[in-house]
Design a protein that fits this description.
By secondary structure, the protein is mainly β. Helix content is 11%, strand content 33%. The chain has a single domain, classed as Fumarylacetoacetase-like, C-terminal domain (Fumarylacetoacetate hydrolase, domain 2, Alpha-Beta Complex), CATH 3.90.850.10. The strands form 4 sheets. Strands 3, 4, 5, 8, 9, 11, 12 and 15 form an 8-stranded mixed β-sheet that branches. A 5-stranded mixed β-sheet has the order 6-18-17-13-14, with no helix packed on it. The longest helix has 9 residues.
């Protein structure tokens, strides 16, 4: 078979390591859930009423992915165009099977594993877009804005519905919550998201962040941990 005659070499496939194996998980798409902890929704000024509302999502480009671990921190430059760069620690669900209009009861079939992640946010640009009725892309979907640790296979863990989730900045705890505090749990999120997309192996779902989000600056060191999943670390460098 002849190779395609590309004008330049295609970009490498974004991927993440898998705990306990040398294999890597190729990442296809990154879906993020907005305001899925009540405390965070309140601090953002929009409390959630689950009885009358449903989850909402935004997408980060797979090329924005940054691999990190607790023992080997990634280092990312402070991003351009912002003066209010925020951390958001989140449980990441890695999809491992196809699913469309899946039921909540069938959601566990779609889950390959979990990771700890950071949904980094240019908060000032996000708020500017919100105020002008524009999409959030400048605030959310930017280079090196999706930080993620190794994938922990779900086998033996099942669908996580509890476990501490924390983030420290320079040793000071900024975010502290529990997966049981998710407004929409993993089953509900997968069932809802699959009404809009044909979920595919390699899709990642960032499930939302607890309250306590805040700004970071060059030189700051972030350390996050999710019970049963593991930790991640990130260092903020100088602007490019």
């Amino acid at each position: 078979m002849n190779q395609a005659d590309y004008l330049w070499p295609p970009a490498p496939v974004p991927s993440l390591p898998i705990r306990g194996t040398t294999a890597r998980l190729p990442v296809r798409r990154i879906f993020c859930v907005g305001r899925n902890y009540q405390g965070h929704a309140i601090e953002m000024g929009t409390p959630i009423d689950k009885t009358t509302m449903r989850p909402f999502y935004f997408i980060k480009d797979a090329g924005s992915l940054v691999e990190t671990s607790a023992g080997k921190p990634a280092r990312v430059p402070y991003p351009p165009g912002t003066g209010n760069y925020h951390h958001e620690i989140e449980l990441v669900v890695a999809i491992g099977a196809e699913g469309f209009k899946a039921s909540a009861a069938d959601a566990d079939r779609l889950v390959y594993g979990y990771a700890a992640g950071l949904d980094m946010t240019r908060r000032d640009l996000q708020k500017l877009c919100q105020g002008q009725g524009r999409p959030w892309d400048l605030g959310k979907n930017f280079e090196r804005g999706a930080v993620c640790g190794e994938i922990v296979p779900a086998a033996g863990l099942g669908l996580l519905d509890q476990g501490a989730i924390t983030l420290q900045v320079n040793g000071e705890t900024r975010q502290s919550g529990d997966l049981s505090m998710l407004i929409w749990n993993i089953r509900e999120l997968i069932a809802d998201l699959s009404c809009f997309y044909h979920l595919q192996p390699g899709d990642l779902l960032y499930t939302g962040t607890p309250e306590g989000v805040g700004a970071v600056r060059p030189g700051d060191r972030l350390s996050g941990h999710i019970e049963g999943v593991g930790g991640i670390a990130l260092e903020i460098g100088e602007p490019e």
